[in-house]
Specification:
Helix content: 40-55%
CATH topology: GMP Synthetase, Chain A, domain 3
Number of strands: 3
Strand content: 15-25%
Order of helices and strands: HHHEEHHE
CATH architecture: 2-Layer Sandwich
Strand order of the largest sheet: 1-2-3
Number of domains: 1
CATH superfamily: K homology (KH) domain
Low-confidence stretches: none
Shape: globular
Length: 100
């Protein structure tokens, strides 16, 4: 496949499923970055990813159970940061990334 064709497939300004996936990935990355900036540096660095579910749940993925415990205490801060980005969130769940 030519490089030009691949670039067209990945272009989020186009319509289609792949464009939706690219847009969603960018949104998730921007959300995670906003959460990282809202927290102290060590806590923020423990965040791997974040997502907002359709039911208004903010899901934060972190590095270890110890960090998950600390981040749960920062749920209100993370919810506020997500809301400033326009997310309609009502609760926060912190999960640990599997290390398999």
């Amino acid at each position: 496949m030519a490089a030009k064709s691949l670039q067209n497939l990945l272009n989020p300004s186009k319509d289609g499923d792949l464009a939706d996936i690219v847009r969603r990935a960018r949104d998730m990355d921007e959300l995670a970055s906003a959460l990282v900036r809202a927290l102290p540096a060590d806590e923020g660095a423990s965040i791997l990813a974040a997502n907002v579910r359709d039911d208004g749940e903010l899901v934060v993925l972190c590095r270890s159970p110890a960090w998950a415990s600390r981040l749960r205490f920062a749920a209100d801060t993370m919810l506020a940061a997500a809301r400033t980005r326009g997310a309609d969130v009502s609760r926060c769940k912190v999960r640990v990334a599997r290390s398999d």
